[in-house]
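Quick one: structure for this chain?
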Amino acid sequence: MTGAGAVTALVLLEWTVGWIGGAAWSQSWDTIKRGHFRITAWGTLLLGVLAGAAFFAALQSVAGATSTEALVVAGGALLIVYVAVQYSNTDRPGVVVGSFIGLFGLYVMFEVATHIEGWVGLLAWLHLLVGAVLLGGVTNGMMLGHWYLNQPGLKPWALARLTTLSLGACLVSLLLGLLTAGRLASASTEGAVLGIPGFGQDFGMFFYGIWVALVAFTGGVVWMARRCVRIKSLQSATGLYYVAILTAGVAEFLLRYLMVNAA
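Got it. Here's what it folds into:
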C-alpha cells in the first residue's frame, strides 16, 4: 500500500475501529441513554463506508489482497448490524456487537498492516492500534460531552474515563513514535513540499517533529479537558475536545504518511 490513498484508508480504518470500540466500552457502563449510541452507530457506519471505499481504491495495486477486501466487506456488514441492535430493548446487544466489531477491527488492522511496505506487521499494527485508541477516545469524548445536554444528571465520571483513555493513548503514541523515530524521520517526502518534484525529499525529520508536537499538544488539550471535568465544567471540556479531534486527526494523517513512505 502506497500513496495518499493508503494514508487516507489507514486513518479512516483506525478512526472507525477506535470510535466503535470506545462506544462499546462506554455503553457497557449502563449509564448513558441509548440515543447517544444510536447517533454513534450511524456515525461509525458513515465513516466505515468511507474507509471501505478508500481501501478498495488503495488495494488495487496490492497483490494477494483479496482476503483483505473480503474482511472490509464483512466489516461493513457488521456496522449495519451495529446500527440495528441499537434499536433493541436493552443495551446488551449493542455492547456485544460493538465489542465484537472492535475485536474484528483489530484483526482487520493487523491484516492491513502486513501490506504496509517496509514494516514488520506487528510493529505497524501497534501503531495503528494506538492511533485507533487515540482517535476513538477523543471522538467519543466529544460526542459524550454534547450528550450531557440531552441527559441531565449524567455523572461527570463517564467523560472522565474517556479523558483518561485519551491521555494514556497520547503518551503511548509518543513512546511508540520515539521507539521508531529512526524509520519515521528518514521517510522519503519527495514532492511533499509545494508539490514540486525533486524538492522536499528530506523533510522526514521536519514532519516527524511536527507530529511529536501535535501529539504532545493533543495531550495538553486533553489534560485541560480533564481539569474541566473535575470542576464539572463539561461544556468547556467538550469545546476542548473539538481541538483535540483536530490535532489528533492531523497527527494521525501525518504519522501514516511517514509510515507509508518509510519503506
